[in-house]
Amino acid sequence: MTFDLSLYLVLDPDLCRDHSMLETTMAAIRGGATMVQLRHKTASTREFIEIGRALRAAMAGSGVPLIVNDNIEAAIAIDAHGLHVGQDDMPAEMARQKLGKDKILGLSIESEAVARKIDKSVIDYVGIGPVFATSTKPDHKPAIGFEGLAHLTTLCNLPSVAIGGVKQEHVTDVLESGADGLAVVSAICGQKNPETATRQLADAIKNARARLASGPFQTGQN
Predict the structure, then answer these.
(1) Any binding-site annotation on 185?
(2) Is 117 assigned a ligand-binding role in the annotation?
(3) Is residue 76 part of a domain?
């Protein structure tokens, strides 16, 4: 299926205390989120499936894909649109075999060595980072910065989303690095008004794309 990585919400149950993950998701979709990932490291598979089915039902008809982080059993039971795996999760080839060819499969990329080993016939998109250190994933690999992001984006040569501490003020740098969008957690989850926060991000992405498409401003022309 087709997908748009522009504004990729990664749900965090701890940050979604004032607004549940379901409330946050629907607010984010109204604000312009283009993909949603359900990440819940402490939930049992049964709990994961329960939450995921509620999200899947609420998101029906929105056109926004629901991606499950790591838990392939839950992804299949939910009939999620796809799965995202990290380097320490199930191998991507095995995940593809279990998921089938019609689902979206994303892979986390943290280093040049990993980027060079990607099988593009298996992976649909890559999540590249962490761009910055982030408290929402304390066990992350060293931050790569925008220079690292640009390097890995070029190496992977697949649709890509930047992740790891990226916020509205980083939109232009992320897009200039070659990534197709931003994966955000705290920039939406835990915000007082998730819909407004998402809309501001979506507008920033749209405006940055327009500026980049017009090319560098030139003076001295007649």
Answers:
(1) yes
(2) no
(3) yes
Count of domains forming the chain: 1
Query: 40 labelled as ligand-binding?
Result: yes
164 assigned to a ligand binding site = no
Distance in Å from the first CA to the final CA of the chain = 47
pTM, rounded to two decimals:
0.93
CATH number (domain holding residue 196): 3.20.20.70
135 labelled ligand-binding: yes
Phi-psi region of 24 (alpha: psi -120 to 50; beta: other; left: phi over 0): alpha
Q: Which of 45-54, 82-91, 127-136, 183-192 has the lowest mean pLDDT?
A: 127-136
153 annotated ligand binder? no
Please report whether residue 57 resides in a domain: yes
Residue indicated by tokens 């990993």: 114
Would you say residue 221 lies in a domain? no
Q: For the segment 176-185, what is each residue's pLDDT rounded down to a tens digit? A: 999 999 999 9
| 39 is annotated as contributing to ligand binding | yes
